[in-house]
Amino acid sequence: MSRVIGAALAMTLLASPVLCGERVDLTKPASATGVVEVGNVSGSITIVGWAREEVHVQGVLGRGTERLEFEAGPLRTVVRVVLPRNCRSCEGSDLTIKVPAASALEVNVVSADITVRDMTGTCALKSVNGDILVTGSTSQVDARAISGEVEVRVARAPVRAKSVSGDVVIDGVEGSVEGSSVSGSIRVKGTAISRADLAATSGSIRLEASVLPGARIEAKSVSGDITLVLPRGTVADFEVTTFSGGIRNDFGPAATRVSQYTSERELTFSTGSGGARIVLKSFSGNVALQKR
């Protein structure tokens, strides 16, 4: 009987929530190019790429945490902070996770910040209430936050970055870029852009980049300014409209009013054939085409 009671007590202790901050320091083998899935409710997650074929988890589990799920397979590794159901007083967990640099990251958090650096694989990152920061040489980034800022500073990679109530900053993009924010600004710098789709509701948009022949560039804002900075020799067809703002054009003709009965202004012109197609639209903001 005592053995049964002892075994039951041991199982109870293993399943009991963490009463105070518990430190973790765990390592498991992982594929050099596998998927690493990370989940956390609150706190912070820092992902660092390294050359080893291992995943190393280090940090502190918040009070009330049920357990840390850490499973490594030949193709997928899972690191997830598990909380008891209906936990009302659980504290946040702060983890630093080192993963093979070429891994494909899938990170989902609720009220936590995400930081990623030194990765060369793809990154898919989602936060409900937290900031996202990505730096390094990732091959592709998809970062989305509801209430938080999104900052992506990478070397020559396609990027998708979105926030509902935060600023979006993208630096180093190449190829395609997609950025949107409802109540924040969007700032993008890049080279050799083939497609850009930028949209803001109450914030400004600034794109500074070179564009490829045949590229499609589109930026729309409801109540913010739009600024497009391009190399002097850019070849493109331009279509610019604003309902109640002004239009500045360093590349050619001035804008004209649509009619004498409205404040709407439009500008349509071309700097050569076979270039990019650029469409800029703002309802109540100014639009500027600037030479770099």
Describe the structure.
This protein is mostly beta strands. The protein folds into 2 domains: 104 residues, 3 Solenoid (Pectate Lyase C-like), CATH 2.160.20.120; 144 residues, no CATH class. Helix content is 5%, strand content 62%. The protein is built from 1 helix and 21 strands. The protein has a 5-stranded parallel beta barrel with strand order 7-8-10-11-9. Strand 18 and strand 19 form a beta hairpin. The longest helix has 14 residues. It is elongated and about 70 Å long.
In short:
It is built from one helix and 21 strands. It has 292 residues and is mainly beta. Strand 4 and strand 5 form a beta hairpin.
List low-pLDDT spans: 1-15
Give the ordered list of helices and strands.
Answer: HEEEEEEEEEEEEEEEEEEEEE
Number of structurally distinct domains? 2
The tally of helices reads 1
Helix content: under 10%
Biggest sheet details? 5 strands, parallel, barrel
Report how far the terminal alpha carbons are from each other.
82 Å
Structural category: mainly beta
What would you call the shape?
Answer: elongated
The share of residues in extended strands comes to: over 45%
Using only CA atoms, what is the Rg?
24 Å
Average pLDDT taken over every residue: 92
Major β-sheet strand ordering? 7-8-10-11-9
Oligomer: single chain
